[in-house]
């Protein structure tokens, strides 16, 4: 049994470890290198469990989460990372007609 | 004004000064000669914001700030006496940089910590107050006059945690007087109670004023952000600020949150558990919404010449626009929000960042394409609205006024 996520969230474990990245800098890099179908799949899968995720994670303090809860938090942050891309840009990994991603620095 | 956009009128919180009428000249956006004048008469005569003092909380913490517009670079450092000081980053021995840029890998800021600042060339060392320490081989030098030989100080003052520097040793106005009534409006905002949640930056081939102009009007939202914020396109009256205020060289606009705003599923999820940038925040903070507008979203506050501090319900963000040349600018955005106390609040916070960031990708997309075409010489003037684009006209007029002035020193 895959134990990368807390019990009850096994169906989301297929998004790891790629979407368990720790920083926005890394999550944004991953998003801009992905394809629309993947972003849409991530979005649909996480938002369907969003309340359950918050209920699970809010049992723990934000600082010092156990590893599996940290993975679930980071996955949820990845969901937010792709949210506008899916809701507004049909899953486009980069903002359509946006400034050049390669010349845009996300500092942390 | 003949435009049928007056579903709500823009309130004027202050009188609007005489700024001329009709089209504005393109020259200040493209002229190398004009930019040289701006370097002398604006950027060496105005207070320039460089960082927040809580970036360097402890004695010995320092931050290196590029000051291309001064042809320099400065070190902002907290001394052992807790005093924050700034120095040009140059060793008076041979002119080497005393502090080399040190990227904090975890944060990617140009910051560090030291008890003594030591030039990496010959080891000349400086105390955190800029005074020269004993020099290796000093007996081989003619007498070194320590009153004359030390780090070159930069005039510095702090308002509400924002660190400003001034090129002149004795500025014509003290900082607080320069910031004036715009700072009065914002004075009570508890800036030091927020957490720094994001920094983005980019270098764009665009004039600094043309770059700023993409960020202090709402008229573009219905078109440019029609995809990312469909509400803006559906409700074009959002193109009109709810109110505008002009305070000397500075200005402030308040943005309209439509009562018909329909948040997306991710925004709803964010608001259910925490704070987002999307319209709908109800946290009332002092120092914002100075004209008491109904359906207020956030304020765009612009301190001349090049610093934005936009304040909303539970967040604020800043932009610094650092001119490189008449056609190149470094843009830096910092986002601050009330500290997330729980995991679900932390997830909501990510929505603030991502929504702002992806929208600003659209804003930045216009800069280089605009500058490229302005540089063609095809247009001599721009046809701007006196109300929708009042801030564009005000920045243009203020820059022209300062450039036309006699040098103050």
Structural summary, described in words:
The complex is a heterodimer of chains A (about 110) and B (about 400). Chain A has helices at about 25-30, 35-45, 50-55, 65-90, and one strand at about 105. In chain A, helix 1 crosses helix 4. Chain A is globular and about 40 Å long. By secondary structure, chain A is mainly alpha-helical. Chain B is built from nine helices and 19 strands. The model of chain B is unreliable at about 1-5 (pLDDT under 50). Chain B has helices at about 25-30, 30-40, 175-185, 210-215, 220-225, 230-235, 265-275, 345-375, 390-405, and strands at about 10, 25, 50, 60-65, 70-80, 85-90, 110-115, 115-120, 125, 155-160, 160-165, 195-205, 245, 250-255, 295-305, 305-310, 315-325, 330-340, 380. Chain B is α+β, with helices and mostly antiparallel strands and about 400 residues long. The interface of A and B includes residues 57, 83 and 107 of A.
- Total DSSP helices of chain A: 4
Overall number of strands of chain B: 19
Q: Please compute the radius of gyration of chain B using only Cα atoms.
A: 23 Å
Strand-residue fraction of chain A? Answer: under 5%
Average pLDDT score of chain A: 96
Topology, number of strands of chain A: 1
Q: What profile does the largest beta sheet of chain A have? A: none
* Coarse structural class of chain A: mainly alpha
The total of helices of chain B stands at 9
Q: Order of strands side by side in the largest beta sheet of chain B?
A: 1-13-14-15-16-17-18-12
Biggest sheet layout of chain B: 8 strands, mixed
Q: What is the rounded distance between the termini of chain A?
A: 33 Å
In whole angstroms, the N-to-C terminal distance of chain B is: 42 Å
Principal-axes shape call of chain A: globular
Question: Any idea how many domains of chain A?
Answer: 1
Radius of gyration of chain A, taken over Cα atoms and rounded to an integer in Å: 14 Å
Helix content of chain A: 40-55%
């Amino acid at each position: 049994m895959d134990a990368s996520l807390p019990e009850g969230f096994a169906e989301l474990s297929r998004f790891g470890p790629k979407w368990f990245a720790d920083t926005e800098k890394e999550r944004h890099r991953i998003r801009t290198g992905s394809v629309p179908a993947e972003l849409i799949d991530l979005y649909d899968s996480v938002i369907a469990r969003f309340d359950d995720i918050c209920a699970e994670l809010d049992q723990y303090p934000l600082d010092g989460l156990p590893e599996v809860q940290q993975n679930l938090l980071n996955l949820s942050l990845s969901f937010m990372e792709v949210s506008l891309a899916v809701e507004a840009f049909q899953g486009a990994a980069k903002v359509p007609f946006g400034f050049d991603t390669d010349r845009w620095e996300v500092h942390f | 004004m003949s435009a049928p956009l007056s579903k709500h009128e823009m309130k004027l919180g202050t009188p609007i000064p005489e700024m001329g009428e009709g089209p504005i000249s393109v020259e200040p956006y493209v002229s190398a000669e004009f930019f040289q004048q701006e370097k002398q008469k604006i950027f060496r005569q105005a207070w320039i914001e460089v960082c927040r003092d809580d970036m360097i909380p402890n004695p010995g913490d320092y931050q290196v700030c590029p000051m291309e517009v001064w042809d320099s670079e400065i070190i902002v450092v907290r001394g052992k006496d807790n005093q924050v000081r700034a120095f040009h980053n140059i060793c008076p021995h041979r002119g080497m940089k005393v502090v080399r840029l040190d990227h904090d890998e975890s944060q990617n800021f140009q910051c560090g910590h030291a008890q003594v600042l030591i030039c990496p060339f010959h080891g000349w060392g400086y105390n955190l107050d800029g005074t020269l320490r004993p020099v290796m081989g000093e007996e081989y030098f003619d007498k070194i006059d320590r009153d004359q030989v030390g780090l070159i100080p930069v005039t510095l003052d702090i308002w509400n945690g924002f660190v400003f520097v001034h090129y002149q040793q004795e500025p014509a106005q003290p900082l607080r007087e320069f910031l004036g009534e715009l700072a009065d409006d914002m004075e009570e905002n508890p800036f030091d109670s927020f957490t720094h949640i994001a920094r983005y930056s980019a270098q764009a081939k665009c004039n600094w004023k043309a770059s700023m102009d993409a960020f202090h009007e709402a008229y573009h939202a219905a078109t440019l952000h029609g995809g990312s914020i469909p509400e803006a396109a559906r409700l074009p009256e959002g193109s009109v600020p709810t109110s505008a205020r002009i305070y000397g060289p500075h200005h402030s606009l308040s943005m309209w949150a439509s009562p018909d705003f329909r948040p997306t599923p991710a925004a709803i999820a964010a608001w259910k558990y925490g704070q987002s940038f999307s319209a709908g925040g109800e946290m009332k903070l002092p120092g914002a919404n100075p004209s008491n507008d109904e359906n207020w979203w956030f304020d765009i506050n612009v301190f001349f010449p090049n610093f934005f501090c936009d304040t909303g319900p539970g967040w604020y963000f800043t932009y610094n626009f650092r001119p490189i040349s008449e056609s190149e600018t470094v843009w830096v955005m910092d986002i601050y929000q009330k500290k997330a106390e729980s995991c679900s609040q932390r997830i909501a916070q990510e929505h603030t960042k991502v929504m702002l960031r992806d929208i600003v990708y659209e804003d930045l997309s216009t800069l280089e394409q605009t500058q490229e075409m302005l540089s063609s010489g095809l247009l001599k003037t721009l046809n701007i609205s006196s109300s929708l684009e009042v801030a564009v006209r005000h920045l243009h007029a203020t820059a022209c006024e300062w450039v036309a002035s006699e040098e103050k020193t």
